[in-house]
Amino acid sequence: xxxxxxxxxxxxxxxxxxxxLRLRPSWVARDFLKxxxxxxxxxxxMDVGKRGFICxxxxxxxxxxxxxxxxxxxGLSYLDIAGHDILLRDALASCAALxxxxxxxxxxxxxxxxxxxxxxxSRIFFHYHQMTEDARKLGHNSKEESYYFPTxxxxxxxxxxxxxxxxYIVEQGKQYELLLPLLxxxxxxxxxxxxxxxxNVQGEGFHLQAGLLHAPGTALTIELQESSDVxxxxxxxxxxxxxxxxxxxxxxxxxxxxxxxxxxxxxxLQWEANGDPYFYENHHTAPVEIPGTDPALGGExxxxxxxxxxxxxxxxxxxxxxxxxxDLGVHNLLVWKGEGRVQKLRVAAGDFAADEILVSHDRAVAxxxxxxxxxxxxxxxxxxxxxxxxxxxxxxxxxxxxR
Length: 403
Hints:
A hairpin with a 2-residue loop joins strand 4 (78-81) and strand 5. 21% of the residues lie in helices and 28% in strands. By secondary structure, it is of the alpha+beta class. A seven-stranded antiparallel sheet has the order 1-25-22-27-20-19-18. A seven-stranded antiparallel sheet has the order 2-3-6-13-8-11-17. Strands 21-26-23-24 form a four-stranded antiparallel sheet. The chain is built from 14 helices and 27 strands. It has two domains: 34-60 and 114-277, Jelly Rolls; 287-384, Sandwich (Jelly Rolls), CATH 2.60.120.10.
């Protein structure tokens, strides 16, 4: 479809929906771990054969998955416009100013962030994501990420996440001495003994820069991150399921692997931050209330913050109440609980045709009306890309202990 025709379709759709666009769900399969079965899909729909099981849903995504078994456009979101199959990525490429505002579109190629829900029945393997300088070697983005553990769903069998390594390992310079032999041998899950685990608490989360080791727990997680699917895996086995050693090298240049072997992965880590004795204090993100709303109507909290690369909020509207919220730029919404209307559009949690929306720049700055037509709180998660909220989003104060 040429750009002129695409712009005509989007203009018409935005006009009919008050500056909003509905999105279709984007389901992502993984073949390395067991699914948690909390995404609302039937068993039949989850099982996708050689691709594995549907374990993730990506939201307003311009990012394609990097799975071993390829599937056309996996991870990419489609606009939900009757009679048309239009990728969000194509819409943003052709009509950036229309959707993102002219000023923002002049400096950004797209939404440039990835929101997702992931759902596993076992803890994810101990891994890291490449920092900017390492990701760029293969033409990828880095992957800073943040987690939010929503309420009202089972936590799974292992609701705790391992982060970093014990501080003494870095203080004494023993990271290669202790970890490298395990990578060379590539057996079992013994590498976790060198890390610390923290409980996944519903309603809270963590912020994690690239280059940091982590093994996420089984709490259903709504994640916001940079638009990337890079990683390096350091754990050879998860609950008896052996992991391919190819995952260790997945996003490391072949020449570096040839020259350094397993050490190449360890050289990509932020060791000082991995050994931070106050890791929890410096990465835990409790919700931060945003003032200015009558609590009887509802309100907003920051749940993704401490970064210029993305940000996000949790909005609650009380039953029978309405709110109008102005934001600083384009963003997307996930309706997590309840039902109601966003502008004129009906929304409902769990209804895949009515729970995901893109809010254009013009609508966001003019204000979006939210109405709760149900009997329980209407809860909506809002996801923003880089720089939009940098002037207002809170930042964690670096904690270094009492002196």
